[in-house]
Amino acid sequence: MERIVEEFKKASADPIAYGRALKEDGRKIIAFFCTYTPEEIIHASGVHPMRLFGTTRDSSAADRHLQAYCCSLVRGALAQALSGELDFIDGAVFPHTCDSIQRLSDIWRLNTAYGFFADVVLPVKLTSASARSYFEDVLAKLRSDLEKGLSTRISDDDLRASIRTYNSIRASLSELYGFVSRGASPLLPGDVSALVRGSMILERSAAERLLKELVRAHDGIGRKDTNLKRVMLVGGLCDHPDIYRLLLDSGALVVWDDLCSGSRYFEGAIPEDGDPIANLAGRYFERAVCPAKHSSTTARARRLVEAAIRERVQGVIFLQLKFCDPHAFDYPYLKETLDSHSIPSMLLEIEDQLPPEGQLLTRFETFVQTI
Amino acid sequence: MSAADSEKPRKFRAAKRMREIMTEYYIEAKGAGSTGKKVAWITSGGPVEPLIAMDVIPVYPENYGAMIGASHMGGDLCAKAEAMGYSTDLCSYARADIACARENGGPIGGLPKPDMLICCNNICGTVLKWYETHARYFDVPLFIFDTPFCHTEFPDIARKYVHRQLDEYVAFLEEACGRPFDLEKSSEVGRRSLEGQRLWQEVLDTAAHRPAPMTAFDAFFFLALIVTLRGTQVVVDFYRELLSEMRERIEQGVWAIPNERFRLLWDNLPVWYRLKWLSDTFASHDACLVADTYTTAWCGSMKYIDENDFFGSMAEAYTRIYLNIGVDEMAKTIFSMIDKYQVDGLVMHSNRSCKPYSFGQYDIMRMVQEEKGIPCMIIESHMTDERSFSESQTLTRIEAFMEMIRQRKGLRS
Ligand code: SF4
Ligand code: SF4
């Protein structure tokens, strides 16, 4: 098991190195920044889709283009693109989510030359029949943009094969997460996070195979009880393995999350027969929404409470990226809803770097002691 | 400073009339409960014409935000929103308005409660979140008019989607009002809306005259009507009057800045709580802000409107508005404004409240410097939250900027 987890950890800790190596093997790579990217279509074209987390040591290259009040994800991604760190990619895809990503797309288009470029202007409301058919139209457009841009053809069968791969990856991730939540795994929560993030980076057929192996390796492992408090992370992206470790040191186990680098990535299987584009669109209408999209005014809170009850969560930690509007808008009402169900929560605002370790540990310990 | 102080900008006749109209409008809106009319809260760039055709009173939290800012109540209200858990980095319109909705603490004793909410995301994603908050709090129906972002184009698939939403919008209104929609009446409102937009554009155009009879600060003031009462006859009559006042001024030589020497373009929303200070500061340098991208946004997509099919063409016009287009498209608009108004410098308000308006400004600034060779400057603020504004820093920047402009024109300070 360790060997496999190590592979995912390595890839998620240094996606650039992984991307470069893959490129040297002759693979084409398209970068993306958000789980609303219909990766399956890119994958079906034979190109490798790779998520970037905007994690970079030095984001000053973005200072000429973005004000200081821009989130570190957008800033980091642009800095990487401008500094040459991404010299191995063959293009990028920008799904419409928040205002910041939307402008990142413009600035990227005007200042970089990475070959393929596509905006995927998805609908914002995911409730109406018109939005659903527009969603399908947008996916079909991406498909034909890719076909033109890469001089290739993407058949329905290619798409179905790709959907099968992703279904398998998502199902394995969900199973593994379950093992850890139930205490029936030697893996740690930070490992699961690395598996999810790694799955957005590793060559997908390799990821599929390795994850299956990992699931199989769990056969016969029994449950172990712990005294750790059961907590849940809620927010956008968490690219900080240290958070999981520090929580563990504070006596808490992350048993579930609502993160786009977590459950929002792997929830929702896609039907494998029938019209693949319609099926792909369907998943986005059913899965938990990100706050930049609208499904209903109460769906997020409801799902959050349901998950908390189901996973017997004792406390919730909101991880909020500084300057992230969609998440910041949802926070007060999510917190209020948790309060009304007597589920304690804390808010951790993160800039590009985490607060000093000692300080963070104290905050976690204080919180964990009260739950 | 003394020159500007001694020659107080001459008052506009129309200002009084405008205050009257706004007062009447808010009185009517606040009295909706007793007249049985319904009230809809709607975003500033939202398709309001169908509401007017249905005799629903549109109310604009953003206009209210501007009032809050101008009356220096923003800082307090934003602090209240922060106490409720809303981050200080969020749009200050949204923060102030959310706090008001809960506390009724703002100007005019708060807005009349909504019977429905109409949110059009052609200006930002903030409004979606903001209106979701209201929908939960007031427990009223929310209609989202989803206008896909047009980075470089408005593809047919988006056109089809927005068109279909017009029908959904109508169905929503029929349900909310319990009455059938009157397409005939809606076209009439549409014609008046277009007429209002034309007149507003003509008013703004008068500032192309050298020297200019009005400044962007005047435009910020007179904007309220095209935002809040677009589609009514009152607006058409008012802007016709305002237009003739502007023309009179040109004939009589009444200029906004007595010794206009420099002409500037403003980008982004106003700094609502420092209008006078900014206006005086620029005037003290004999600089006139002759135009701005913000007030122009309410007539900028007229080219997509078909006079004979307002309702049908509204889909495109409301989707391709200034904020819903790519940075390069925005830059093109700015270039043409620089030419049209013969501008010597660009003042960019980097507005922490408004990310979609502000991100990309640095790129636009470089394009302007390259293409037009004029100096640019940045002023930073949270447009309705006065707590973080630095007057001294802004002043230093304005002085350095004006010095550059003088040098470029071969003038001494
Ligand atoms: S959703 Fe939030 S974190 Fe993600 S790009 Fe937008 S502002 Fe940044
Ligand atoms: S100021 Fe900007 S972010 Fe705020 S409501 Fe207006 S367009 Fe949206």
Number of helices of chain A: 15
Rg value of chain B: 21 Å
- Biggest interface and which pair forms it? A-B, 53 and 48 residues
Output the helix-strand order of chain A: HHEHEHEHEHHHHEHEHHHEHEH
Task: Report the bound ligands by name, code or SMILES.
Answer: iron/sulfur cluster
Largest sheet of chain A: 4 strands, parallel
Number of strands of chain A: 8
Kindly state the percentage of residues in helix of chain A.
Answer: 40-55%
| Major beta-sheet overview of chain B | 4 strands, parallel
Under the CATH scheme, the architecture of the domain at 7-181 in chain B is: 3-Layer(aba) Sandwich
- From the structure provided, what is the oligomeric state, counting identical versus distinct chains? heterodimer
Mean pLDDT of chain B: 94
Helix and strand content put the structural class of chain B at alpha/beta
Shape of chain A: globular
Residues in helices of chain B, as a percent range: 40-55%
Mean pLDDT of chain A: 95
Instruction: Give the ordered list of helices and strands of chain B.
Output: HHHEHEHHHEHEHHHHEHEHHHEHHEH
Structure description:
- The complex is a heterodimer of chains A (371) and B (413).
- With 371 residues, chain A is of the alpha/beta class.
- Chain A has 15 helices and eight strands.
- A four-stranded parallel β-sheet of chain A has the order 2-1-3-4, with helices on both faces. In chain A, strands 6-5-7-8 form a four-stranded parallel β-sheet, with helices on both faces.
- Chain A is globular, with a radius of gyration of 20 Å.
- In chain A, 52% of the residues are buried.
- The mean pLDDT of chain A is 95.
- In chain B, β3 (116-120), α8 (126-139) and β4 (142-145) form a beta-alpha-beta unit.
- Chain B contains 19 helices and eight strands.
- A four-stranded parallel β-sheet of chain B has the order 2-1-3-4, sandwiched between helices.
- Chain B has helices at 2-6, 13-30, 32-35, 49-53, 61-70, 74-83, 92-103, 126-139, 156-177, 183-205, 216-228, 233-252, 275-283, 293-296, 310-319, 327-340, 355-358, 361-372, 391-408, and strands at residues 39-42, 57-59, 116-120, 142-145, 262-267, 287-292, 345-351, 376-381.
- Chain B has a domain at 7-181: Rossmann fold (3-Layer(aba) Sandwich).
- With 413 residues, chain B is an alpha/beta fold.
- At the A-B interface, α5, α6 and α14 of A face α8, α9, α17 and α18 of B.
- Bound molecules: iron/sulfur cluster (SF4) (2 copies).
- One iron/sulfur cluster binds at residues 71, 73-74, 97-98, 100-101, 236, 292, 321, 324-327 of chain A.
- One iron/sulfur cluster binds next to α8 of chain B.
